[in-house]
Amino acid sequence: MIKRSTRWVVTGLLCAVAGATQAFPDKPITLIVPFAAGSTTDVNARDFAQILGNVVKQPIVLENRTGAEGAIAGQALVNAPADGHMLLFTSSSLPVLDPLMKKAMPYDPVKVFAPVCTVARTSNVMNITAGSPLKTAAEVVAAAKAQPEKLTFAYSSATTRLAAELFQQTTGVKLRGVPYRSSVTALTEVASGQVDLMFIDHVSAQPFYETSKVRPLAAAGAQRIKALPNVPSATEAGVPGYNILPWFAVYASAKTPPAVLAQVRDAVGKAMASPGVASNLEKRGLEPMAICGDAFVKFQKDDIELWRGVLNKAGIEPQ
């Protein structure tokens, strides 16, 4: 009996030591962003990094790893040690839309990313070169029907491409897509008149609104957005099918031990509940949205199925 009791005591001590080694975090956290500095994802990530750092009492190092429409950043997370000290802050295009729109990916985001928490959601706006004679969404549709594929649209992610594809499917027009590595570069090309249109969130486009180089024509969905009260909603503009609302979230590696993943989710949840977070997001024109853990897993799955149906109906094949 004495030997058996001693064995259990030793085993318990070993378990306690092993548990202690999984403390999170015990060093700086790297937050990977798949899009360029200045993009909405980047700006949102920088705000979030500061808040998360206050919660975990560790430095948060933000790294922009652009390219391959976000896949390079995702691969960085896949290759990193799965200890919770590297996280991915991304828009929904990478974990939801890329698997549906890309035939060959180096990894499956659904399998290799562990959903931590959503952070916010944003809008999508139809934007045009300020000098264009086309003043409304209806005029764009008429011009595109008169001359199919003459009008061009820039895209830098699956979200910005899909928004344009939905617009085309809904209106029955044909536009010509032009890919870019970053939203800033794409918008710069729209501002200069090299490309006609871009379907992107108003936060990314705001600097171009301020210089009067890009003009918003319609905001996706049925309601106008607070940040652009004078811009009609897509429904008001006669394009009710143009309805896409991207969101932002934090992911860890799917190989992260459950106990550590729970600590990561707890830390992110506390960050989202911090005073001033909601008001700060709203000032940037974003809507707070904190969905964590299993609820987030289900939310993502439902979103994937929703867009799978949309893509199948539109006849858009993975490329």
Explain what you see.
By secondary structure, this protein is of the alpha/beta class. The chain has 2 domains: 28-122 and 246-314, Bordetella uptake gene, domain 1 (D-Maltodextrin-Binding Protein, domain 2, 3-Layer(aba) Sandwich), CATH 3.40.190; 125-219, D-Maltodextrin-Binding Protein, domain 2 (3-Layer(aba) Sandwich), CATH 3.40.190. 45% of the residues lie in helices and 18% in strands. The protein is built from 12 helices and 11 strands. It has helices at residues 2-20, 40-56, 71-79, 93-101, 109-112, 137-146, 158-171, 183-192, 202-210, 258-272, 277-283, 293-314; strands at residues 29-33, 60-64, 86-91, 113-121, 125-129, 152-155, 176-179, 197-200, 214-219, 247-253, 287-288. The strands form 2 sheets. It has a 6-stranded mixed β-sheet, sandwiched between helices. Strand 6 (152-155), helix 7 (158-171) and strand 7 form a beta-alpha-beta unit. Helix 2 crosses helix 10 (258-272). The longest helix is centred in the C-terminal third of the chain and has 22 residues, at 293-314. The radius of gyration is 22 Å and the shape is globular. The N and C termini lie far apart (67 Å). Residues 1-21 have low confidence and may be disordered.
